[in-house]
Design brief:
Blueprint: E1 9-10, E2 19-20, H1 21-27, E3 31-36, E4 42-47, E5 49-56, E6 59-64, E7 74-80, E8 89-91, E9 101-107, E10 119-125
Amino acid sequence: MASELRVNTLKDAAGANSVAMEYVAGGSAKAWVNFNGTGTVASYDSLNLSSLSDSNTGHYEINITNNMNDTNYGITTGGSNALTGFVGRVCSPANSKTSGDYGIETINNGGSAHEDYEHVMASVNGDLA
């Protein structure tokens, strides 16, 4: 039997430092991933990730286990590449997402070519379906 806990506010053990549930539910990442984008892509760790794939140099596709409500969610990205010693740009183009997946691109320091990164990270915020 499933149980349910209904509260309006969470507080620490001393009864201070409270936070309203709307911030807990609305402000928590709904999905995130940290993966190796070189060679065979593989997740170092993740939440709500069903799969990821490498579609081309510096192009990755991330599939979410539990879909987002719509395509109006936010994605924060980052990455690093020890092979070149510098982070270029990591982004998720606006036209590369649906409620169940999104794309990420990694671009070299000069911004002229896609490049595979050793560490690629993304965090998704918004409402789950």
